[in-house]
UniProtKB/TrEMBL annotation:
Belongs to the glycosyltransferase 2 family. It comes from Litchfieldia salsa. InterPro entries: Glyco_trans_2-like, Nucleotide-diphossugar_trans. Gene3D superfamilies: Spore Coat Polysaccharide Biosynthesis Protein SpsA, Chain A. Pathway: Cell wall biogenesis; cell wall polysaccharide biosynthesis. Keywords: Glycosyltransferase, Transferase. Transmembrane segments: none annotated. One of its GO terms (molecular function) is glycosyltransferase activity. CDD domains: GT_2_like_c. SUPFAM superfamilies: Nucleotide-diphospho-sugar transferases. This is Glycosyltransferase, GT2 family.
Length: 297
């Protein structure tokens, strides 16, 4: 059995596709924990129409507490059931009908408890890779491997350092081991880079991550938060800095700060060059708020 946690915020546009794909799974032994982040659209109405076809537990939150916090709520609830693994999925995804079957086959063949990345493919162009996992470089920066490349590039086995929480399976034991301040995902991140932070913590504890190429999930990408929005610009600007400041030994951080600042200025400057003034302002505000958050680490 698996516990599936999905966080939703005004995602009515994507829910029928997502939920219908769960009803069509060839592997059916799972519970869906649907955490609604204070939606004001028809999300709850839609999910309730699937209550007889899926085993669903709906968790209502009064306001949008963010992807990280809402996932923590769902994970905490899922910890009470008998599953070994918790699967996190974005609400703007659609699962191939054998997705969970292939994941189950892979897990059952292994004697170790790995973190599993499900293969994420572009929802609209199903020859294009969306995510295969995270690779950390020597500067602790996270690279989303094979992003936007053709799926034909995945001929050989790929080594990854961590997983994207948009479609991943975590052993409960690993989540418990990495829990900090009573949280699984760091709630200060709100949205974006919370999974990178968790991936690095899991790697440092000795957990390995594995890509399951046959477990396919089609992903709209930024369906809820909107691509290139001020919301996304703000949290990426803030959270990349927060992730680095939190996780890198302070001596190394100080030694590399000029390089990190250069990358930051380059990212923010692109908004100005493209005339995206609101994104530029949001990115600058993210820097300011990062400075205020540093005191917690």
């Amino acid at each position: 059995m698996y516990s599936i946690v999905v966080v939703n915020w005004n995602g009515e546009k994507y829910l029928n596709s997502f939920l219908l794909s769960l009803t069509k799974q060839s592997y059916k032994d799972f519970i869906l924990y649907f955490v609604d982040n204070g939606s004001v659209d028809r999300s709850i109405e839609i999910v309730n129409t699937y209550s007889e076809r899926l085993q669903i537990k709906v968790i209502y939150l009064k306001e949008n507490v963010g992807f990280a916090s809402a996932n923590n709520v769902g994970i905490e609830e899922a910890m009470k059931d008998d599953s070994r693994y918790i699967i996190t999925l974005n609400n703007d995804t659609e699962l191939d009908e054998d997705c969970l079957y292939h994941l189950s086959e892979t897990i059952n063949k292994s004697n170790n408890e790995y973190i599993y990345q499900l293969l994420m493919i572009n929802f609209y162009d199903r020859s294009e890779i969306d995510a295969v996992g995270i690779k950390f470089n020597e500067d602790f920066l996270a690279n989303q491997m094979f992003y936007k490349e053709n799926i034909s590039k995945l001929k050989n086995d790929i080594e990854i350092d961590g997983v994207c929480a948009g479609a991943a399976a975590y052993p409960k034991s690993a989540l418990i081991a990495t829990k900090e301040n009573n949280h699984y995902f760091d709630q200060n991140f709100f949205a974006y880079y919370e999974d990178v932070d968790l991936a690095l913590r899991l790697k440092r504890l000795g957990y390995s991550s594995v890509l399951v190429k046959d477990s396919i999930v089609y992903h709209v990408h930024s369906g809820t938060s909107k691509k290139d929005s001020p919301f996304k610009a703000y949290y990426l600007s803030r959270n990349i800095r927060l992730y680095l400041y939190k996780n890198i030994p302070k001596q190394d951080y100080q030694r590399k700060i000029l390089y990190y600042n250069y990358l930051s200025v380059r990212r923010t400057g692109r908004f100005l060059i493209k005339g995206e003034i609101m994104n530029f302002i949001a990115s600058i505000r993210g820097v300011y708020d990062f400075l205020n958050l540093r005191k917690y680490y």
